[in-house]
Amino acid sequence: MGNFIFPPLCIICNTPLSTQNEWLCITCLDSLHHNSTNRNACPKCSQNLDLRFCTCELAWDFSFDKIHSVYDFSETIRSAAHLIKYKGKGKLAYQLGLLSGKVIPKQLLGQCDICIPVPLHSSRERQRGYNQSELFARGIIDSGDFKLQIECNLLLRNRKTGTQTKLDRTERAKNLTGAFSVPSEKGGVLKNKAVLLVDDIVTTGATTEACATALMECNCASVTVLSLARD
User: Fold this and answer.
1) Where in 34-113 does DSSP place strands (E)?
2) Is 48 within 8 Å of 70 (Cβ atoms)?
3) pLDDT single digits (tens) 154-169
4) Of 2, 16, 137, 164, which shows the fewest CB atoms inside 10 Å?
């Protein structure tokens, strides 16, 4: 009776929900499905080539192998990211992981040994109450029969770097220099391992590059980046 008088609403657009999903309405689910299945993504940087030109064939200068992004940074994803980062909706990151796991190529996960979410600084994670990249990763792993182990203590964020929204690629890279490290006693765990590095939104790739640099210093076999969206 309560739901009839006050029906549950879509967390993105406030439309009454059907029974299909407890978080998102059919319109938002269709929007996400269309987004993910209609991306003409570069196989290296995952930029949508119908929207933006990339230079991967000419100048790939990252230490990780490639990026796979599930979505373009659409208005639906923008709204979701805002709710997750600033409105305490961590469970939405997990739900987006469940949805994403259904469209991520199984071989992408199958070829990796360890899944490492991009870490937050400890003070930021305490303030927020969760790491959205970790929850996104857990949703992906839980969406299917994936054996990939998520490790949250192999990569640390050493210092706060502040928001990077208004910084260009060069400024972001400078801001992130030395921001991540692997604890010395854990470096051996990464030797010869293929790492899946999971982030929420990839823009210039500066954050994932800083993470990958720290991981590769421990003689990882490879680092592949998986992100919710590509901005």
Assistant:
1) 66-72
2) no
3) 999 998 776 666 667 7
4) 2
Write the CB contacts of 82 (distance below 8 Å, at least 6 apart in sequence).
Answer: none
Long-range own/partner contacts, residues 26-33 (CB < 8 A, 24 or more apart): 28/76, 29/99, 31/74, 31/76, 32/71, 32/76, 32/77, 32/99, 33/103
Report d(CA 158, CA 206) in Å as an integer. Answer: 16
- Dmax over CA atoms of the chain, in Å, equals 61
**pLDDT band at residue 180 using 50, 70 and 90 as cut-offs:** very high
pTM above 0.90, yes or no: yes
Phi/psi region, residue 211 (left: phi>0; alpha: psi -120 to 50; beta: rest), is alpha
Higher pLDDT, 147 or 219: 219
Cα distance between residue 212 and residue 36, in whole Å: 25
* CA atoms of 86 and 32, how far apart (whole Å): 21
> Are the C-beta atoms of residues 197 and 39 closer than 8 Å to each other?
no
Q: DSSP for 47-62?
A: -BTTT----TTT----
